[in-house]
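Bumping with the actual sequence this time:
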Amino acid sequence: MALLNVRGLMLLWKRIGEDDVMGLAAQLAYFFLLSLFPLLIFLVTLLPYLPITQEEMLSVVADFAPGETMTFIETNLNEIMNQQSRTLLSFGIIATMWSASNGINAIIRALNKAYDVKENRSFVVARGMAIIFTVAMIFVFIIALLLPVFGKQIGMFLFAKLGFSSHFLSFWHMLRWILSFLIIFIVFLVLYWLAPNKRFQCIDAVPGAIFATISWLIVSWGFSFYVSNFGNYSATYGSIGAVIVLLIWFYLTGVIIILGGEVNALNQLLKDETC
């Protein structure tokens, strides 16, 4: 990767300031927070049609979210679902599409800025693309929920047939994280390839996707460890401590997503210079 040198790293640091990466990440954190509960409501209302439980669904989020936030998410989600409103599914769909597509729009603007291109697609096309990406993300999330369920059942059957059932759980634990890595990588790869208003080969989006996937996993686990062991946000912010933790996690996620786009754009620039 052309970026892996001193000049490339210095240029990346310069572009972080010029493209206002931190400010754009704050926008993403706001839209992520707006999208969270409508998305969870929508997914929970689909659970009767899927072979998974609410606990299994939330466990996927719990694998990455800071521990303190899970109690906040579960409590508020249960309060909403206990209302038993018939309009929850339609509300979840509409609210998710609106807030999440705004978040995707913010990502598209950030990636366009990274590539120094203007958005000349019409409002209908740009919004339609954001909605399609939103639907695709929901579809990928559902697949991520279903893979562990069916994968574990298939794996236990095969390992029992082969006589290795006692070793399955350790193997499954390792495979589960590999699957999570691949799903997250594919999401970032497609996002970096199709979202910017610039056409290039899919392979050119790989460096940023790898960077974003590895960075997001490390930062999520690291931040979760810090919050669980050192950061007492409740002592500082009181009852909204969990919201602050959630916002910081979303902010870090936004920074990483935009940095992945910057990595791709700068890598492409450096490759063009050497040609």
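The tokens above came from a reply further down the thread. The chain has one domain: 6-274.
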